[in-house]
Amino acid sequence: MKSYETVIGLEVHVELATKTKIFCGCTTAFGGSPNTHCCPVCTGMPGTLPVLNKQVVEFAIAAGLATNCTITQNCKFDRKNYFYPDLPKAYQVSQLYLPICRDGGIEIEVGGVKKTIGIHEIHMEEDAGKLVHDEWDDCTLVDYNRCGVPLIEIVSDPDMRSADEVIAYLEKLKLILQYLGVSDCKMQEGSLRADINLSIREVGAPEFGTRTEMKNMNSFKAIARAIEGERKRQIEVLEYGKKVNQETRRWDDNKDTSFAMRSKEDAQDYRYFPEPDLVPIEISDEWLDTVKKRQPELRDEKMVRYETQYDIPEYDASLITSSKKLADIFEATVAICNKPKEVSNWLMVETMRLLKEHEMEPENIAFTPENLAKLIGLIDAGSINRTVAKEVFEVVFAENVDPESYVKEKGLLIVNDEGELRKTIDEIIASNPQSVEDYHNGKTKAMGFLVGQTMKAMKGKADPGMINTIVLELLQKQ
């Protein structure tokens, strides 16, 4: 069997985090009753004219700068004609001839090998509506709420050769966009979705093979499975002596296979022409400089700063910065308590454990940096031990309670009364003569048993160090 190489390029559609749509004042809020977030402008009714949302342009510029693109300071919109029912005006306003960003790239790392994935262009456009297929009534309904929601489409070069490289690219891109604040990138809501352009060729062949496109993939797992499935399908087609058709395919993750939808259109099929209802966009040097100055610190820079400023290991910095939400909580908590390693440990261990248990994303964390700092303060003051702290943190994580008030209300403060501790330990030693005998016979684990029984009797509210000291003292007097 011949050896084949997979060639992959992506078109990533990103819904921008503006409050209103790209050409009208309708809300971009997710959900809502069907056809309640639309107006004559975003549904393209006769006699209406679009007005460009300035924030869309600035978000596109920010994304371009962060992905090392050249900004097209004189760009324009074009009209892309197609006749699908999810766009009632039968065309989409997009950018073909002069996209706002061009010739960029981002670096990924897979298996310890670094590689730059080129970005051919980023262009602005409006989103289409949503088709709802009602199998019960055998009909298709259309919800136009999403019509006119602003998008940027990030078109990569065909530089990826495996599903691992694709996922690394998407994860890096997602983090950049989230750190910029230009999109929430919630794939389950369609804020980030990818079209996969895939072809195969014999290893060493100079020309690309015929590509297929799988549209609107909104799950990393589904994307990885779709790439592997389509790769195998195309190899089988060629091995049987047939030709791969240039077409758009739909990936069915439940059936682990793809199905042909329609022949793949080229630019000429859409009959692009300059959008007559919108003037060209002129991005002045001053405007561009203003956006540049607002660019936030991105993950790569933040990781380096965390290692030097907070003296935390590279692994810690990598994990914390893997989510903007975690990074924001880390910095805000450290600013309050000035204990970076302690904050890092709580985020990396207990927070990650609870996120996994509750099947939550870091973006949905509800507790505040103030309450995490208070919990750390209670430990430092010796008011609670770490066992109790973990129990309290579970409540803080779930309900964002004030840990100081909660500890007082539940009577969880550490008992530092030496007299009370000695009385309890005396009773436990008296009740366990075998353990005392075992200890004097050299079985040191017997002392651990007595310490454990004391902690149990004190309901975890005693200082373990004090317990160990007193138990040892009393055992030596036996």
Automatic annotation (TrEMBL):
Taxonomy, superkingdom: Bacteria
Keyword Nucleus: no
A molecular function GO annotation: transferase activity
Domain Asn/Gln amidotransferase: 328-475
EC number: 6.3.5.-
Gene Ontology terms: biological process: glutaminyl-tRNAGln biosynthesis via transamidation; translation
UniProt keyword annotations, A-Z: ATP-binding, Ligase, Nucleotide-binding, Protein biosynthesis, Transferase
Alphabetical list of Pfam families matching this protein: GatB_N, GatB_Yqey
Signal peptide: none
Top-rank EC class of the record's enzyme: ligase
InterPro entries: Asn/Gln-tRNA_amidoTrfase_suB/E, Asn/Gln-tRNA_Trfase_suB/E_cat, Asn/Gln_amidotransferase, Asn/Gln_tRNA_amidoTrase-B-like, GatB, GatB_C_1, GatB_Yqey_C_2, Gln-tRNA_amidoTrfase_suB_CS
Catalysed reactions, as listed in the record: L-glutamyl-tRNA(Gln) + L-glutamine + ATP + H2O = L-glutaminyl-tRNA(Gln) + L-glutamate + ADP + phosphate + H(+); L-aspartyl-tRNA(Asn) + L-glutamine + ATP + H2O = L-asparaginyl-tRNA(Asn) + L-glutamate + ADP + phosphate + 2 H(+)
Family of the protein in this entry: Belongs to the GatB/GatE family. GatB subfamily.
Quaternary structure and interacting proteins, as annotated: Heterotrimer of A, B and C subunits.
PANTHER family to which the protein is assigned, alphabetical: GLUTAMYL-TRNA GLN AMIDOTRANSFERASE SUBUNIT B MITOCHONDRIAL AND PROKARYOTIC PET112-RELATED, GLUTAMYL-TRNA(GLN) AMIDOTRANSFERASE SUBUNIT B, MITOCHONDRIAL
Function: Allows the formation of correctly charged Asn-tRNA(Asn) or Gln-tRNA(Gln) through the transamidation of misacylated Asp-tRNA(Asn) or Glu-tRNA(Gln) in organisms which lack either or both of asparaginyl-tRNA or glutaminyl-tRNA synthetases. The reaction takes place in the presence of glutamine and ATP through an activated phospho-Asp-tRNA(Asn) or phospho-Glu-tRNA(Gln).
NCBIfam families: gatB, PRK05477.1-2, PRK05477.1-4
HAMAP family, per the entry: GatB (MF_00121)
Protein name: Aspartyl/glutamyl-tRNA(Asn/Gln) amidotransferase subunit B
Species this chain originates from: Anaerosporobacter mobilis DSM 15930
